[in-house]
Write a structure and sequence with these properties.
Elements: E1 2-7, E2 13-18, E3 25-26, E4 33-34, E5 37-50, E6 53-65, E7 75-77, H1 92-116, H2 123-132, E8 143-152, E9 155-162, E10 167-173, H3 177-186, E11 192-195, H4 199-208, E12 213-216, H5 218-235, H6 255-260, H7 267-283, H8 289-296, H9 300-308, H10 330-338, H11 344-353, H12 360-366, H13 368-371, H14 386-394, H15 402-414, H16 416-434, H17 440-448, H18 453-464, H19 466-474, H20 480-495, H21 502-518
C-alpha cells in the first residue's frame, strides 16, 4: 500500500493511499489469486482518532477478475490485511474499539464514550455492533452452577455459570425444570450441579443429567435457616423486651394491665386490637389463613402475623421513640418551661446557643406534651426487632459485640424457645464448619420435634432433599460464583436502565466476563 498524501487542514485527518497495481490478490469467493485488474474505486475508512481528531482513510483499491472459471464470482474487490474488512467502513482497530465500548457500556453510555473518543455513532448503532459480536464457543463444564435472578417485576431468569472457570455460560427467561433439562441434554458431561433449594432446578437436573451429583448451596441453606429463626423470633415477639437491661416478664399482660395501658387508647392500639380479635375469632373457629384474609380483606401474611401473635401488643405498628439529638437538652427544656418560657421558637434559639444543631420542629414536637399537661417524652430503649434477634442468634459467638452478646444472653435466659432455637442453629453451624454431615439426620429429628412450626417446616423440606443437603455440607463446591455473577447481571441491567431484552442481556453478561478476563491486570510479584 502506498500513502499518497495526508491532509490536516479540515476537521478530519485525511490519509489518501492506494494499493499497488502489480500485486496479486486472493479472490473472496474461491481463494484463487489473480492479477487481472478490472477497475479501481475509493473506499472511505474511519480509523481511531489521532491527536484528538478523527481520522479518515481514502483508500483506492482494485476490482479484479477471478481467473477461476467455476467460481461464482466474476469480479472481486481486493482486501488489505489489518486495514479493510468486507462491507465495513471502519478499520478493524476502530471496529474492535466500538465493540469493546458497546460491551462495557451498552447503548447510550457507549455512544457518549465514543463521542469522547471522536467517534460519532448513535446508541442504536452501538447496540447493533454489539449484537454482531459472536459469543465464545460454549464448553460443557464439569461443575455447573445454576441460580435464578429477577428480570423485572415477578419475572425471573436462570443463569448458568461454569464453577471451575467462574465464567457465565448463558441465561434465559424463566426458571422451570424443562428449560434446564433441555439444556443439560444438549450439553452432556456435567458431573456436579450446584443449586439452591428450588424444586424446579432439582427436577430439571435430575431429568437432564441424572448421573450428576446435586449440591444444595451452603449459603442458601444458611439463609433458609436464618429466615425460619426470624419467624420464630416474630412468634415470640412478646419476649423480646427481656433483652433490655430492666428484665420484663415474657407472659402476656393481664386484662387489668391491658385496660390501664395508655397504648390501648391510641388509634394504632385500637386498630391492632380490632384486627387481632377479628383474626383470632376466625382462625380459632378453624378457618384457614387464606379464607380469613379473603373475608377481612387483608393480605394472607398480615393474617398470619396476627394469628401467631399472642397479644395485640405484639403487632402494634408504632414502636417506642428512638433517641434523638435533643435528649441531652430535655432537662433544660423542662426547667425553662417551669420558669414560664412557653415559646418553642425562643427555646430553640436558646438551645442553639448551647450547641444544639437540630431543627426547630423537633423542639416544637418535644414541648407539645407539656402544653397538654403531660411530662416530656423521655427517651426509651427499644426492644430488639425479630430481624435483629435472628441476626444475634445466627452470628458466631466470637463475632458478636459485647452489647449484643449481653442482650442475647438475657433473652435466651428468659425465653426457652429462643434458647432451643439458638442451640439448633449452633449445631448446624458446627456441621458446616467441620464439613461433617453425620449429625444431620439427628439434627433434622430435633427440628421436627422442637414444637416450633417454622423449624419443623424447614426440617420437612431438608429431608426431601437430604442427599443434596449432605453434599452441600461436605462438598467443596458451592454457588458463590453464581451469586457474584448475578450481582454483575443486576449491574448490567441498571446500566441499561432495566430495558434490555434477554438476548442483549445475555450477550453483554457473557462477553463482558470474557473481556475482563482478557484484559485483567497481570498478577505482580510480591516484594521480597
Amino acid at each position: 500500500m502506498l500513502v499518497e498524501s495526508v491532509d490536516v487542514s479540515g476537521p478530519y485527518v485525511v490519509v489518501r493511499a492506494r494499493t499497488r497495481s502489480g500485486a496479486s490478490a486472493r479472490c473472496t469467493g474461491c481463494g484463487t489469486r489473480s492479477e487481472w485488474s478490472h477497475s479501481r474505486y475509493v473506499r472511505h475508512l474511519a480509523d481511531t482518532a489521532l491527536g484528538g481528531r478523527p481520522v479518515r482513510i481514502d483508500l483506492s483499491v482494485r476490482r479484479l477478475y477471478c481467473e477461476n472459471t467455476v467460481c461464482p464470482k466474476m469480479t472481486f474487490a481486493e482486501q488489505v490485511p489489518e486495514l479493510t474488512v468486507r462491507y465495513q467502513r471502519r478499520t478493524p482497530l476502530l471496529q474492535h474499539l466500538v465493540e469493546a465500548v458497546g460491551v462495557m457500556l451498552a447503548g447510550r453510555g457507549g455512544a457518549r464514550m465514543l463521542r469522547v473518543l471522536n467517534v460519532e455513532l448513535s446508541r442504536c448503532t452501538v447496540l447493533s455492533q454489539l449484537m454482531r459480536v459472536p459469543l465464545p464457543a460454549l464448553v460443557t463444564p464439569r461443575v455447573l452452577g445454576v441460580d435464578d435472578f429477577a428480570l423485572y417485576g415477578d419475572t425471573y431468569g436462570t443463569l448458568l455459570v461454569d464453577a471451575t472457570t467462574r465464567l457465565p455460560l448463558t441465561l434465559w427467561e424463566g426458571r422451570d425444570a424443562e428449560q434446564l433439562s433441555r439444556w443439560l441434554r444438549a450439553h452432556p458431561g456435567v458431573e456436579v450441579a450446584c443449586r439452591d433449594g428450588s424444586l424446579a432446578y432439582r427436577q430439571g437436573i435430575a431429568d437432564g443429567a441424572p448421573k450428576a451429583v446435586q449440591v444444595s448451596d451452603r449459603f442458601h441453606l444458611w439463609q433458609g435457616l436464618s429466615r425460619r429463626v426470624q419467624e420464630v423470633a416474630a412468634a415470640h415477639r412478646g419476649c423480646l423486651p427481656a433483652a433490655l437491661p430492666p428484665v420484663e416478664a415474657c407472659d402476656p399482660p393481664s386484662h387489668e394491665e391491658t385496660a390501664a395501658d395508655p397504648a390501648a387508647d391510641t388509634p394504632a392500639g385500637r386498630h391492632a386490637r380490632r384486627l387481632f380479635e377479628a383474626v383470632h375469632a376466625l382462625t380459632e373457629a378453624g378457618r384457614s389463613y387464606s379464607s380469613a384474609a379473603r373475608e377481612l380483606g387483608l393480605d394472607r401474611r398480615t393474617v398470619r402475623k396476627y394469628a401467631r401473635a399472642r397479644t395485640w401488643h405484639e403487632v402494634m405498628r408504632r414502636p417506642p421513640r428512638r433517641p434523638s439529638t435533643l435528649d441531652p437538652y430535655l432537662d433544660y427544656l423542662q426547667q425553662r418551661w417551669d420558669e414560664g418560657e412557653h415559646s418553642a421558637k425562643i427555646l430553640h434559639q436558646e438551645l442553639l446557643a448551647k450547641g444544639y444543631l437540630g431543627h426547630y420542629q423537633r423542639v416544637k414536637m418535644a414541648v407539645a406534651p407539656l402544653r397538654r399537661g403531660l411530662p416530656l417524652d423521655e427517651p426509651r430503649e427499644r426492644p430488639p426487632s425479630p430481624r435483629e434477634t435472628a441476626r444475634w442468634i445466627i452470628t458466631a459467638p466470637e463475632r458478636r459485640g459485647p452489647l449484643p452478646a449481653q442482650r442475647l444472653h438475657r433473652l435466651l435466659e428468659h425465653c426457652p424457645e429462643l434458647r432451643h432455637t439458638h442451640d439448633l442453629v449452633r449445631q448446624f453451624a458446627g456441621m458446616l464448619d467441620a464439613r461433617n454431615a453425620a449429625p444431620l439426620p439427628d439434627w433434622l429429628d430435633q427440628l421436627a420435634s422442637s414444637g416450633l412450626a417454622p423449624l419443623a417446616s424447614i426440617a420437612t423440606a431438608l429431608r426431601e432433599d437430604q442427599q443434596a443437603v449432605t453434599q452441600g455440607v461436605t462438598s467443596p463446591y458451592n454457588s458463590g460464583v453464581n451469586e457474584g455473577r448475578i450481582t454483575d447481571v443486576k449491574l448490567q441491567k441498571r446500566i441499561m436502565a432495566g430495558r434490555a431484552g434477554v438476548p442483549l442481556l445475555r450477550h453483554r453478561v457473557v462477553l463482558i466476563a470474557h473481556l475482563r478476563r482478557r484484559y485483567a491486570a497481570p498478577a505482580t510479584a510480591a516484594p521480597r
